[in-house]
Fold:
Amino acid sequence: MKHVDAVIIGGGPAGLAAAIELRKKGIDDILILEREKKPSGILRQCIHDGFGLTRFGETLSGPKYAARFVREAEALQIPCLTDTTVLEVTPDRHVYASSSEHGMMEFEAGAIVLAMGCRERTRGAIRIPGTRPAGVYTAGVAQAYINLKNKMVGRKVVILGSGDIGMIMARRMTLEGAEVLGVFEVQPYASGLPRNVEQCLNDYNIPLSLSHTVTDIRGTDRLESVVISAFDEHMQPIPGTEKEYECDTLILSVGLIPENELTWMAGAEKDPGTSGAAVDENYQTTVPGIFAAGNVLHVHDLLDFVSLEAEALADGAARFLKEGSLPACNLAVRGNELVSGLTPSRISGEDDVTVSFRVRRPLRNCTIELVQGDTVVKRRRMPKALPAEMIQIKLKASDLSQTDDLEVKVTC
Amino acid sequence: MLREFTCIMCPQGCDISVEFEGATITSITGNKCAKGEAYVTQEIENPMRNIATSALVDGGDLPLASVRLTDVIPKDRIFDVMAEIRTVELSAPVHEGDIAIHDVLGLGVDVIVTKDVDAA
Ligand SMILES: Cc1cc2nc3c(=O)[nH]c(=O)nc-3n(C[C@H](O)[C@H](O)[C@H](O)COP(=O)(O)OP(=O)(O)OC[C@H]3O[C@@H](n4cnc5c(N)ncnc54)[C@H](O)[C@@H]3O)c2cc1C
Ligand code: SF4
Structure:
């Protein structure tokens, strides 16, 4: 068994940014453990443009954004064991990993950073009826086939779900010569960003049908068609609206789920609002010395926020390593019925903190208030707020009380 | 004429309402910054886009390298440029920043590699 000050699980943008920032804060003994052959996480397949505007002030492709962090980690000589899967994390911070080169390994960590990212919801997770032919892919899997392996997944395509990755794949497949018949979304609004509706769908005349979903999948070996039905406001199919679309491929872009098996093994408590770990203002989970950031904590739409969050995590983790513990965070953070995915769930009131959340449905002219007791700590008016866009609000220690819980109130 | 645009220049995606005659904007609301006005002006005159795709790599540890254009091109030339990119095959190793096609179709932009691919 080997002692390591900071073990980082996952070499995606969150893990890399945390490692680099920890080193800059004087933590020398760091180890990144990454399951794939190379670090950079999901970004190696996100070849489109649009990353980095907040963090670097310019727009970069996914691989280029990742390369900046990989190079910096290399320059700082931060060790990264690739082809290495972490199998277990214990509450007393032992990490068990395995690789074909080194076999089973055990590390005793001073602090652990969970940065495992997320995976996609699949057909099973949304229970679409019908046969099980080939030709049904999640958007990320189709993206990996096309962008990494040079395998075109199909020629006549229906996309279910208006998540950003699905819309990006609609454009990608059109560019590669496929016919994309349409994007169908069960909600009455697009779940991805408006700019992607514009530049991925409208630019290529790909129709977006809201309040519609797939109600049957047909075909024996290969997909032959899907049936789409209109849905009412109670999310029930409207009889008589069924329409059959002949296609050889169905792409699912129906959401991402944080990859938290290791988190729960370590005994960390779940935040029901995010499905990720409950964390305090230092990104520390309920298990001392175990931290989480990036998509494993809550699903991000903007990569720049992943990097910034991981860098903020490094502050707390470095302090934990130097001082042995972090100040208690006894104030709860709660949101009202229009708030979803709120994090952190606890704060001390003694430090600056960034609160992240989403609105539950599209809103116009809403007011966001962060309130402690009778005091409004911060108020922001928003002409437009969408579930697709994470809202982040920074609070200064000097504005916070150390006695009252913090409430996030969105009103419309 | 009155038209609504969604600005694609940054993730904010502002809804911009514009009144214009010919190519002259007479009123514009909804853009949070000057880039929005520049975008809309361009959209009215001649929409321009960048594209990201892949080029084949011979002898690499991956069969493809991601590429993009150094600058935007007219929207109606996108599929011509895609066809042109499909004709090239790079030789591994390739490096981020390598030029895959110089001045593609005489449009004044280069196709550049955005990812390193090592030799297999
Ligand atoms: C398909 C897809 C497309 C996306 N497109 C966009 C986009 O267009 N624009 C945008 O801004 N954002 C996009 N995102 C989101 C963005 O990529 C993420 O916000 C960002 O990559 C999250 O970084 P991360 O480090 O938290 O996770 P990831 O990038 O997922 O990295 C997690 C890493 O942890 C490793 N790992 C997981 N479990 C283990 C284990 N047990 N042992 C060892 N290693 C492990 C994984 O191999 C991976 O390398 C996309 C996400 C996905 C899934
Ligand atoms: S107008 Fe400015 S802030 Fe709004 S989307 Fe365009 S670039 Fe972004």
